[in-house]
Amino acid sequence: MIRAFHAAACANAKLWLVGDGPERATLEALAAELALEDRVSFIGFRHDVADLLSQSDIFLMSSNYEGVSIAVLEAMRASLPVIGTQVGGMSETVKPDTGVLMPAGDIAAMAAAIRMLADSPEKRQQLGAAGREFLITEFSINNMLTKYELLYKGNSA
Questions:
Q1: What is the pTM assigned to this prediction?
Q2: Strand 59-61 and strand 40-44: pairing?
Q3: Handedness of CA 50, 87, 60, 81 (dihedral sign)
Q4: Which stretches does DSSP call E strand in the chain?
Q5: What is the residue-wise DSSP string for 74-114?
Q6: How far apart are CA 102 and CA 126, in angstroms?
Q7: In a designed cystine with 40, which of 7, 14, 31, 140 is the match (CB 3.0 to 4.6 A)?
Q8: Rg of the chain over CA atoms, in angstroms?
Q9: Spatial contact of 64 and 85, defined as CB atoms under 8 Å apart
């Protein structure tokens, strides 16, 4: 993600990395090596993620392994377009009309997606609105209850 952000070369863009883990020091060193210290912020664990998402334009997920990501669903709830990797359950939530997926590790494709969305407020709005609608439709309480009921009755949804 940091390498793709650098390659995208969007002069006014900022990247917030939320969360923490054993790779933080390595990632901070990479940001410094790429002279991104003033544009990449490592903000650690937060309890105000909804507020951070409301201040964002694009959501990035560069996982090598992922199930159905709660973080992606939170981004969709915030009407953000999602750029992510084609791993695990990502393709179950990120569709062509809600975001952009690319193979894990494809820095050029992620950079191109970042540039494309950075340059098009209309596309960001379109994908974000479709993602929110998808979330409401597919992950509503009523829809989930219906799917569980069908599962218990031996039917598939």
A1: 0.87
A2: unpaired
A3: negative
A4: 15-18, 40-44, 59-61, 82-85, 99-102
A5: HHHHTT--EEEES-TTHHHH--TTTEEEE-TT-HHHHHHHH
A6: 19
A7: 31
A8: 17
A9: yes
Beta bridge partners of 17: 42
Sign of CA dihedral 34, 39, 123, 81: positive
50, two tokens:
């909804």
Place of tokens 């090598």: 64
Q: What is the pLDDT of residues 80-129, one digit of tens each?
A: 999 999 999 899 999 999 999 999 999 999 999 999 999 999 999 999 99
CA separation for the pair 31, 25 (Å, rounded)? 10
On whether the CB atoms of residues 64 and 39 are closer than 8 A, the answer is: no
Written as six digits, the tokens of 86 are: 């084609």
pLDDT, averaged across the chain? 93
